[in-house]
UniProtKB/TrEMBL annotation:
Xref: SUPFAM superfamilies: Pyrrolidone carboxyl peptidase (pyroglutamate aminopeptidase)
GO biological process, one term: proteolysis
Entry protein name: Pyroglutamyl-peptidase I like
Signal peptide range: none
Lineage: Eukaryota, Metazoa, Chordata, Craniata, Vertebrata
Gene designation: PGPEP1L
Length: 222
């Protein structure tokens, strides 16, 4: 975990179906202009992924191998959403909807030997409660939809041992422009990084306590 770089990768998706302009990528482009804030001490990299299962599988693997990021955040669009949803987990099965090339994963499975569910290290409930996002509601979810964005999320959770997130944004509208969504992403990812920092500090503390207790017990046995 500590060997990872300070890099944070945020991806949006390209066009699909009737979504010729994908709000996820428009939001990520706005985030790229804003950055994550001078005090975050992270390198932000943004990438567009195609709505293509096979291409996503290759690109997600390359992201983790080449960049070794501390966090990967995938941003997808939920056409029916009125709020921003933070997805807590991803499922391995049920990918039955075709991508832009008409392809479906064999048997609807992401990784044949993978666990049924992988959960993010980030507490999405905590982030959704703490994040102060203006102009749009933020909620958390445990069903990421079983499409290409969920597929990418599962792969990132697998490669990154839980150090990944998926944010679903609504479509663009006059009252929900890309600039507002970009600012929302900035606030949410800042909170996610703080959440990861707290969780790791707590784990380190528990590990030190456990280690010191073990040494004490060892002394008594001697």
């Amino acid at each position: 975990m500590d060997s990872r770089s300070s890099c944070v990768v945020v991806t949006g998706f390209g066009p699909f179906r009737q979504h010729l302009v994908n709000s996820s990528w428009e939001a990520v482009k706005e985030l790229s202009k804003l950055g994550l804030g001078n005090d975050m001490e992270v390198e932000l990299q943004t990438l567009q992924l195609p709505v293509d299962y096979r291409e996503v599988k290759q690109r997600v693997a390359r992201i983790w191998e080449a960049l070794q990021p501390q966090l990967v955040v995938h941003v997808g669009v939920d056409p029916a959403a009125k709020a921003i949803f933070l997805e807590q987990c991803s499922k391995n099965r049920g990918y039955r909807d075709a991508d832009i090339r008409g392809f479906r994963p064999e048997c609807g499975v992401c990784l044949p030997d993978g666990p049924e569910v992988i959960t993010s290290e980030v507490s999405m409930k905590a982030v959704s409660r703490r994040a102060a996002v203006q102009g749009v509601e933020v909620a958390f979810s445990r069903d990421a939809g079983r499409y290409v964005c969920d597929y990418a999320y599962y792969l990132s959770l697998h490669h990154g041992n839980g150090c990944a997130a998926l944010i679903h944004v609504p479509p663009l509208s006059p009252w929900l422009p890309a600039s507002l969504l970009g600012k929302a992403l900035q606030v949410l990812i800042q909170e996610m990084l703080e959440e990861i920092k707290k969780a790791r500090a707590q784990n380190q503390k528990l590990s030190l306590c456990s280690s010191s207790q073990g040494e004490s017990t060892g002394g008594l046995l001697l």
